[in-house]
Design a protein that fits this description.
Helix content is 72%, strand content 0%. The protein is an all-alpha fold. The chain is globular.
Amino acid sequence: MERLVCLAVGYLFGIFQTGYIYGRVHGIDIRKYGSGNSGSTNALRVMGKKAGLTVFAGDFLKTVIPCMAVRFVFKDQPDYAYVYMLYIGLGVILGHNYPFYLHFKGGKGIAATAGLLLSFDLRLTLVAAIVFLAVFFLTHYVSLGSLLVYVVFVAGIIIMGQTGQFAGMGQANIYEMYVLAILLAILAYYKHWPNILRLIHGNENKTYLKKKKA
């Protein structure tokens, strides 16, 4: 029951579509421009840096807030705190990607994933951030950096579990975390499938923080 509640609460947080709301405030439906999704990368491309940062912050915080609440409520139950954080994070990402009131057309969940990472483990967050920034500044492919973040995420959780860093947790709950992490990665790769195809064919869109000179 607690798992279902976490999924449901996470979904309610996730359907707060920062990009869509920000776009509407400025007179546009962000989903009708650029890549067609309501995430921070499309907001950056369509409306500029301020929009990108604002949307990222909103999508980031809508995961951090419920995850940290779960961590506080279950602080004396280490067997469940991390598991429930992954469930509520999954709920947020599902709500962000598939908001029912927007005909299930949302974003790709990467900013929300960043919030889940930070809530889950700071060390894992730092490694993921370094990987993302290195890939982005070398290639300017946001999608490639985002996909590699999920490789770090899954590998990090498995390594932490196998090296005994989830003190007090039962083996069944650790394996459950592995399954949830892999499920989140599959969802991310599914949402990025068009990007993956463009990366393979060498025509993926690049993102630049500064406009390129002619």
